[in-house]
Amino acid sequence: MNATQRSRNFKIAHLSEIEPVDCPCGSTRRAFVEPDNPIASLHLVDIKKDARTHYHKKLTELYLVIEGEGHMELDGELHAVKPMSAILIKPGCRHRAIGNMKIVNVPIPTFDPDDEWFD
User: Fold this and answer.
1) What is the pLDDT of residues 6-53, one digit of tens each?
2) Is residue 70 one of the residues assigned to a domain?
3) Rounded to two decimals, what is the model's pTM?
4) Mapping DSSP to helix (H, G, I), strand (E, B) and coil, where does residue 103 land?
5) Which tens digits make up the pLDDT trace of 54-83?
6) Closest Cα partner for 59 from 71, 43, 73?
7) Does some domain include residue 3?
8) Closest Cα partner for 32 from 15, 56, 55, 53?
9) Which domain holds residue 104?
10) What b/e sequence results for 50-88 when a residue is b if at least 16 CB atoms lie within 10 Å of its CB, and e otherwise?
11) How many domains does the chain have?
12) Is residue 4 part of a domain?
């Protein structure tokens, strides 16, 4: 990135060009996870059936289901979800997605891999 791009008040990410990485939910393509962005990041997540229950101590997450149907387990309770279901997950809420789905996840503040906790 050159100095002109760095000084702009916006960033553009092409999720199709970001390599997916494994996560407790399946695999994710993470945009805007950069040291100079403490505000929020955006993740395109492919949920696998055996997503792992986890929680965050600092992060709030917004989920938007864009493909597939299934359930969200939130603090031990199952909730049916389908495309265009939106979920707000506050810090401390143990959660996982169940089913084959694609979601957009917006962690606030920006995703920190050190803030993933498992019981």
Assistant:
1) 568 999 999 999 999 999 999 999 999 999 999 999 999 999 877 899
2) yes
3) 0.91
4) strand
5) 999 999 999 999 999 999 999 999 999 999
6) 43
7) no
8) 15
9) 24-115
10) ebeebbbeebebbbebeebebebbbeeeeeebeeebebe
11) 1
12) no
